[in-house]
């Protein structure tokens, strides 16, 4: 029986890279893939696929950014004067995400997307329970160590969600709806941030109503210190524990999702299963009385007609040489010989530079936001403060003053202009500032991208958005230096909100989408995981940079340095997206009834984009800093030459004839009828097969 199912033992193993022209697929499989693409493209935006992916992404965003809500409460209860504890928690959460992205990206390509889909949510659920129940035991367990361990495990589950949700959404989407589906899933990231803030706010208000938290003067008076700690300790546990609820709901649907037919056909070499699972999700195509399901062994064809299932013999096809997934030879051919490392470099570096700035602004930015909103300089801790004394002589404020041997404001107190704020008032202010500055702008940016996803050229817009963010950061830094700690500080707040809008309207969303589109099916999850892991490494760098500046740079306007520094990373992101990423769409011209041509953007299919670097080069695309610069330089020369020709009445320095070739470096530019075709020699070669 095994011999019938697998005539060649190698067919038991996954099929690897198919080549830029899909020559690794037998003719029958090529035909089956075209039929699968036809069936997928008959559909538009799919609620089932979106709901399954978006629910998990919402859960993971909630749990990741819940740190902005809980760190102040954790500091209040467990480490009121140790600022490095928050750094440790964020560092290991992000490190866990790196592990999850790399590990699950690889496993999803090797064993199947849906075999892993749901396991990451199990990790999130278990770790959420672990975090929410963390304690010191009978005084002999390190709370920070146990808490950090569970956050690391949670980070693995959070990281795994990125490649799985992105690739499953991409592969199940039709070509026309792919960008809309992916951006709709990514919209759940800012929504998850906002939900975490709102849950924290509602829990805080509930505890205040139940225990008169505001009247206890928690934080600035030690009279009710133990009662306050007990109440505040319960707040962060409820906030974290709530993150398991959507995960439990989402996991139910994930175990009933199937691998997309493209993966089942191209990698698993099971065309029958591919068609069956596709029609389970989308149904059989209309106007087709018969549905054909090729068998997985290539020898039998099942034809469903009039409710009966007939089994008909099909002549075997000659076996072509099969490249094996994750074999050294296949990895070499894909990344080195065919130079697809260009794509991976582009997606990884753009995500890295993006996350340096994005997480520098979005993760544990309580002190940053308070500084941006401040309308006065920091208020010194002196006896002039109304909270310095209390009727019961139990004020905690004198013990903070360095003149009394104190260590300054506690870490939960992030607003140096309001040292008399209680923990209740501090949490309210932090929530208000985050929602108005970050969440609303981010949601608006992501929603706008969903609307315009198919109307803008994605690769060009990624480069442009990095460039715009570079300018915005420079402007924000300049505005901050001009109005910091004055009544005009709202100007900086507006600029930061615009930055967050632009993040999600451009680079933050696109760095998630593009890696799910441009890589072939056999390595799509792996490459998306590597790209996302590079981004999380960037976020670790951001956390370290911000912590280092806050700890070592004593200037009262040190936040301005952060803006200017992050502008540099945005400029580098623009450079890498410009040089190393392919065009996702093409411009096509449609004829109108009056005979005119109307230009529109058409999205390339995953099969076209899976041709990789060589396939893009054949179409005339150019990659690499050196080659891109040569093309841009020669376009400028060409334009200057045309202007001279028009002004002088003859051609200057451009050669003669309608078609001519000019060489610069390793790039040939062939001009025919005003169109520049690019042929790269030396650096870009089509290797012999």
Automatic annotation (TrEMBL):
One of its GO terms (cellular component) is membrane. The chain crosses the membrane at residues 87-107, 116-135, 141-164, 185-205, 235-257, 341-361, 434-454, 461-483, 489-514, 526-549, 561-581. PANTHER family: SOLUTE CARRIER FAMILY 22 MEMBER. Residues 1-27 are annotated as: Disordered. It is a multi-pass membrane protein. Residues 49-585 form the Major facilitator superfamily (MFS) profile domain. This is Inorganic phosphate transporter. Its main location: membrane. GO terms for molecular function: transmembrane transporter activity. It is found in: Membrane. Keywords: Membrane, Transmembrane, Transmembrane helix. PROSITE patterns: MFS, SUGAR_TRANSPORT_2.
């Amino acid at each position: 029986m095994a011999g019938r199912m697998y005539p060649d033992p190698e067919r038991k193993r996954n099929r690897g890279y198919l080549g830029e022209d899909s020559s690794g697929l037998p003719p029958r499989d090529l035909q089956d893939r075209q039929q699968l693409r036809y069936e997928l493209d008959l559909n538009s935006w799919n609620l089932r696929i979106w709901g399954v992916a978006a629910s998990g992404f919402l859960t993971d965003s909630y749990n990741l950014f819940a740190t902005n809500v809980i760190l102040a409460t954790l500091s209040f209860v467990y480490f009121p004067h140790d600022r490095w504890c928050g750094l440790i928690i964020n560092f290991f959460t992000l490190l866990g995400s790196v592990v999850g992205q790399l590990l699950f990206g690889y496993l999803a390509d090797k064993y199947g997307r849906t075999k892993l889909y749901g396991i990451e949510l199990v990790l999130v659920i278990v770790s959420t329970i672990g975090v929410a129940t963390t304690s010191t035991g009978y005084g002999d367990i390190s709370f920070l160590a146990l808490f950090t361990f569970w956050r690391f495990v949670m980070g693995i589950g959070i990281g795994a969600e990125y490649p799985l949700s992105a690739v499953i959404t991409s592969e199940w989407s039709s070509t026309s709806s792919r960008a809309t589906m992916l951006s709709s899933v990514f919209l759940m990231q800012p929504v998850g941030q906002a939900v975490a803030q709102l849950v924290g706010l509602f829990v805080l208000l509930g505890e205040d109503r139940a225990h008169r938290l505001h009247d206890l003067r928690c934080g600035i008076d030690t009279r009710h210190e133990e009662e306050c700690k007990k109440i505040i300790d319960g707040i962060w546990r409820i906030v974290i524990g709530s993150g398991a609820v959507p995960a439990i709901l989402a996991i139910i649907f994930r175990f009933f999702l199937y691998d997309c037919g493209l993966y089942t056909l191209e990698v698993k070499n099971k065309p029958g299963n591919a068609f069956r699972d596709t029609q389970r999700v989308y149904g059989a195509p209309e106007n087709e009385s018969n549905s054909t399901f090729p068998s997985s062994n290539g020898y039998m064809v099942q034809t469903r007609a009039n409710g009966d299932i007939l089994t008909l013999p099909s002549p075997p096809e000659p076996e072509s040489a099969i490249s094996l997934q994750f074999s050294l030879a296949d990895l070499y051919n894909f990344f080195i010989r065919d130079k697809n490392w260009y794509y991976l470099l582009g997606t990884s570096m753009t995500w890295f530079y993006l996350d340096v700035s994005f997480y520098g602004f979005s993760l544990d930015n309580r002190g940053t936001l308070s500084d941006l909103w401040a309308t006065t300089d920091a208020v010194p801790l002196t006896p002039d403060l109304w909270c310095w004394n209390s009727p019961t002589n139990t004020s905690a404020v004198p013990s903070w003053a360095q003149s009394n041997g104190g260590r300054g404001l506690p870490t939960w107190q992030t607003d140096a202009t309001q040292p008399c704020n209680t923990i209740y008032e501090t949490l309210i202010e932090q929530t208000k500032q985050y929602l108005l500055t970050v969440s609303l702008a981010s949601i608006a940016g992501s929603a706008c991208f969903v609307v315009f996803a198919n109307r803008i050229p994605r690769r060009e817009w990624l480069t442009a958005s990095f460039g715009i963010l570079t300018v915005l950061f420079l402007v924000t830094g300049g505005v901050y230096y001009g109005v910091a700690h004055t009544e005009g500080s709202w100007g900086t707040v507006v600029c930061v909100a615009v930055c967050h809008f632009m993040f999600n309207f451009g680079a933050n969303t696109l760095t998630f989408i593009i890696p799910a589109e441009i890589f072939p099916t056999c390595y799509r999850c792996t490459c998306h995981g590597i790209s996302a892991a590079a981004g999380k490494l960037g976020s670790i760098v951001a956390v370290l940079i911000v912590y280092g500046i806050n700890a070592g740079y004593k200037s009262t306007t040190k936040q301005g340095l952060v803006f200017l520094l992050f502008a540099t990373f945005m400029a580098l992101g623009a450079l890498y997206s410009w040089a190393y990423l392919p065009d996702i769409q093409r411009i096509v011209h449609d004829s109108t009834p009056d005979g005119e041509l109307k230009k529109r953007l058409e999205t390339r299919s995953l099969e076209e984009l899976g041709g990789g670097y060589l396939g893009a080069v054949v179409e005339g695309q150019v990659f690499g800093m050196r080659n891109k610069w040569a093309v841009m330089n020669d376009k400028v020369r060409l334009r200057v030459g045309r202007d001279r020709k028009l002004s002088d009445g003859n051609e200057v320095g451009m050669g003669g004839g309608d078609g001519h070739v000019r060489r610069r470096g390793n790039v040939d530019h062939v001009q025919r009828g005003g169109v520049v075709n690019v042929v790269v020699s030396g650096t870009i070669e089509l290797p012999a097969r």
